[in-house]
Design brief:
It is built from 9 helices and 12 strands. With about 300 residues, the chain is of the alpha/beta class. The structure holds zinc ion (ZN). The site of zinc ion (ZN) has 6 residues, from loops.
Length: about 300
C-alpha cells in the first residue's frame, strides 16, 4: 500500500493507493489559520495513519506546495507557510510511517498523475498547469517526471508578464500568478470593473456572456496565451493539461486561452498540441504522489540489485 500526502495553500490531503497506483481512499482537511510546518506534518501523519490502519506501508509519496531540494528532499522556499527550514520532512515521515519517503513539488506530481491515470499520455511530452490559489506547472516526458533542476522546474506561474503589475511573493512584479491565479483574477476584476468580484463569480459571468467580465477574462487569457506559447516553443508538448479551481468545468476559458496561445506559437509547432482540462480534479496530486512513490521505489530496488 502507498500513502499519498499533499499540503498546499488551502488544504491537506492524505490518501491510500494500491501498489499499481490506483487510489483507494482520500481524506481532506482545511488548513488551520496560521498553521506552521510542524503542525502540517503532524496533521498529515495523523490523517495517513488513520487511513492505513494496520496494513503494511510500502512507500510514502508527498506532494509539497513549494520547491523541493532534490539532493535531500528538503523543502526549499515556501511562500505560504513558515517553519519549513526547521523541520526535516523526509526523516519525520520515514520515522512515522516506517517506509521510504519520496517528496516532490505538488504540481510536478499533478503532471505525473494526469499522464498515467488522468488524460493519459505516457508516450509523448505532457505539460500540466494548475490555476488555483497560485499557478504551477510540471513536465512529464514518456511517463517520467522531468527533473532537470536542483530546485525543480516548470515554474510557469512566475513568468513576468507585466513589469508594472502587482508585487509577487517571489520578489518579482507582475508574475503570471499575480494576474491569472484565483486571487489575481479577483484583483484584476476589481481594478478593471471597480467592484469586488471573486474568480468563481467572474468565470460564471464570463460563461453567461457578461461583457464586462469577458473583458477581464480576455486580458487574463492573453497573459496565459503568451506564456503558454513560450512553453510550446520550448517543449513542443503533445498535451497541455489545465487544472486547478479556476479551470474546473471551465471549457469556455480553456478554448479562449487556446485561441490566445496559438497565434504566438512558432508556426511549425502551431495547432499540434492537444489542450485538455484536468481529468483527475482534486485527486490529481495524490494520484501523482502514488505513481511517483511507485516509480522511485522500483528504481531503488533496481539499484540495490545491480
Ligand atoms: Zn512570482
Amino acid at each position: 500500500m502507498i500513502i499519498c500526502l499533499e499540503s498546499g495553500g488551502t488544504k491537506l490531503v492524505a490518501a491510500v493507493a494500491e501498489t499499481d497506483g490506483e487510489l483507494r481512499t482520500v481524506a481532506r482537511r482545511y488548513r488551520r489559520p496560521g498553521q506552521e510546518a510542524l503542525e502540517t506534518l503532524t496533521d498529515l501523519v495523523e490523517m495517513g495513519r488513520e487511513l492505513a490502519g494496520a496494513e503494511t506501508i510500502d512507500a510514502v509519496g508527498y506532494g509539497f506546495g513549494g520547491t523541493v531540494r532534490r539532493a535531500d528532499q528538503r523543502p526549499g522556499p515556501c511562500f505560504h507557510e513558515p517553519g519549513w527550514e526547521n523541520v526535516d520532512p523526509p526523516r519525520y515521515l520515514e520515522e512515522a510511517f516506517r517506509a521510504p519517503v519520496f517528496i516532490e513539488n505538488d504540481c510536478n506530481l499533478g503532471a505525473l498523475g494526469e499522464a498515467h491515470f488522468g488524460v493519459r499520455d505516457t508516450r509523448g511530452t505532457l505539460f500540466y498547469m494548475t490555476i488555483g490559489t497560485g499557478i504551477g506547472g510540471g513536465i512529464v516526458h514518456r511517463g517520467r517526471l522531468l527533473q532537470s533542476g536542483a530546485l525543480g522546474e516548470g515554474e510557469i506561474g512566475h513568468v513576468v508578464v507585466d513589469e508594472t503589475g502587482p508585487d509577487c511573493p517571489c520578489g518579482n512584479r507582475g508574475c503570471l500568478e499575480t494576474l491569472c491565479a484565483g486571487p489575481g483574477l479577483a484583483r484584476l476584476a476589481s481594478h478593471m470593473l471597480g467592484s469586488t468580484v471573486d474568480a468563481c463569480t467572474l468565470m460564471q459571468r464570463f460563461r453567461k456572456g457578461d461583457s464586462a467580465a469577458t473583458g477581464v477574462v480576455e486580458l487574463a487569457a492573453r497573459y496565459l496565451g503568451k506564456t503558454l506559447a513560450v512553453t510550446i516553443n520550448l517543449l513542443a508538448p503533445d498535451t497541455i493539461v489545465m487544472g486547478g479551481g479556476v479551470m474546473t468545468d471551465n471549457q469556455a476559458f480553456l478554448e479562449l486561452v487556446v485561441s490566445r496561445t496559438e497565434p504566438h506559437v512558432f508556426p511549425f509547432f502551431r495547432n499540434r498540441t492537444r489542450f485538455v482540462l484536468s481529468a483527475l480534479g482534486e485527486n490529481v496530486v495524490s494520484q501523482g504522489a502514488a505513481i511517483y512513490a511507485i516509480q522511485r521505489l522500483a528504481e531503488q530496488k533496481e539499484t540495490q540489485t545491480t
